[in-house]
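INFO batch 0412 | record 1 of 1 | parsing
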Amino acid sequence: MNAAHPTGRLNAYTDYKPSGVEWLGDVPSHWAMSRGKALLVPIDLRSTTGSEELLTVSARHGIVPRTTANVTMFKAESYVGYKLCWPGDLVVNSLWAWAHGLGVSEHHGIVSSAYGVYRPLQNANGRFIHLLIRSIPFQWELQVRSKGIWISRLQLTDEALLGAPFPLPPLPEQRAIVRYLDYVDRRIRRYVAAKRKLTALLEEERQAVVNRAVTRGLDPDVSLKPSGVEWLGEVPEHWEVRRLKTLAAIATGGRDTINRKEDGLYPFFVRSQTSERIDTWSFEGEAVLTAGDGVGVGKVFHYVNGKFDYHQRVYKFSDFRRVLGKFFYHYIRSTLRNEVFQGTAKSTVDSLRLPMLQNFPVATPPLSEQREIFKFLDKATAAIDAAIDRTRRQVELVEEYRTPAHRRRGDRQA
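INFO prediction complete | emitting tokens
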């Protein structure tokens, strides 16, 4: 048997044979091709008290406790009669099996009586079955076998699942494949955690550079004075602190998300850092936009100069006076959260209120100094932004690698 090396290297097989399954292709010659009924037995044991831990299906993780899944589903008056399952049992939400609505449980508990519960026989390793049935190719097999009128009501019957083809290595080899995939997964998780920590540090560095420039200027020896705003602290002596309503016009958009067009002619700014496209425009010129409600409050900002449209829950700042648009963009992006989250321990708020924005304090240097500041920031943050983008892309790529590494069938190597 060629098994996975403990360091993560793969030993290639020497001989293959046709599997007889289109999505699978060739498999190692010593592997068996079995139907589900040869390795899974339906189990239908019911709770007599309904007091066991309530489990559900997570498309991301498989079978998890209902509280862990963070779902808001109805609560039954009684869970008596719900199906029992034990660690190692395959649990299937028959209506969502084709969309990762299944997995081998690591918990003892109860699941909906509409779910299917199956126990692997001695020739099948439960963890191997879990990885196999949640792999991308096998999901295609489950979708084909699920029948119904429309996609949200496709149902996988017992007969369909038990008739599905399963590539089955010898049991020791199944365990070796599982060890290898778990080893790779642990390494990837550590790598992703380290990269995300680096991203957070880079974002903190960026925030510090910007905040210092837009509230203290570029001269480290400048004389300071109290700003009169607690979170703003001291500002350069020759700067003025003005209310936002004296510096820009404030408006909200008139469009909704349903108005977006994939190949629209103009940018469409919604409550996300990613903009959409649309075929209409309601403003032309220089503007700064921010999310008016949702998770993007105090976190989503856009600078734009041209024709665009924007969501009805997005605020637009334009027609700037005594402040340059780019300086204002850097300033509000760096400081608005101080006002938004003042006096609250929450990381999100429901919405931004117009009076708060109108009276938001803006520390304003002379226009010539504003220009120096945003030119400095454009250069100073470019390298940091590039490093952040590069790190995020590295995480995306390794997670793309992790998905097939965790879900591909492993028919070429073990």
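INFO post-check: Residues 404-414 have pLDDT under 50 and may be disordered.
INFO record closed
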